[in-house]
Design a protein that fits this description.
The protein has 158 residues and is mainly α. It has one domain. Helices cover 52% and strands 0% of the residues. It is built from 7 helices and no strands. Helix 1 packs across helix 3 and helix 1 packs antiparallel against helix 5.
């Protein structure tokens, strides 16, 4: 019989709401899993700390993050801060690669949420330098594309 892990924090309804908010904030930071073993994902970061099973068995990314973060905060005292120190830089690189850089308001929202959970990373997160030179690429809607196709345009433009 495997001994049960002892909880270091109580997860109250208020904490659960904050953890769900944290999972919403982190949702777009990294993919949950990837086909490549070299890719940095939530699963690979959790696996480095031998807790990847916290993310297993969930139907989708959102639910996996919610349950994984809840177990992480319930059973580990220092590990949440340690993992977030890995997640944020990896997310900055990933989002720059995807041409959708992390914005300062996302970092501020993360800092505020962590503070509400009792983790003060305000100074660390404030020191992060974000590359704002990458434009956020927006694809025109299909309606606009169709309207442009129906107009007579020169060959260079079309």
């Amino acid at each position: 019989m495997v001994p049960r892990q002892k909880a270091v924090r109580k997860i109250t309804t208020e904490k659960k709401e904050q953890l769900n908010r944290l999972s919403e904030i982190l949702y777009d930071f990294l993919p949950l899993t990837a086909n490549s073993k070299k890719a940095v994902t939530f699963y690979s970061i959790f696996a480095e700390s031998k807790i990847s099973h916290y993310l297993d068995g969930q139907g989708n990314k959102s639910l996996a993050l919610q349950k994984g973060l809840e177990k992480l905060f319930r059973y580990h005292q220092q590990l949440p801060k340690y993992l977030l120190r890995k997640i944020v830089p990896a997310a900055i690189n990933y989002r720059n690669y995807k041409r959708k850089p992390i914005r300062p308001n996302e970092i501020e929202e993360l800092s505020e949420c962590l503070l509400n959970l009792g983790i003060d990373m305000t100074d660390e997160l404030a020191k992060i330098e974000l590359d704002s030179s990458l434009p956020n690429i927006k694809v025109p809607p299909d309606e606009l594309k169709e309207k442009l196709r129906s107009h007579v345009l020169s060959q260079e433009i079309s």
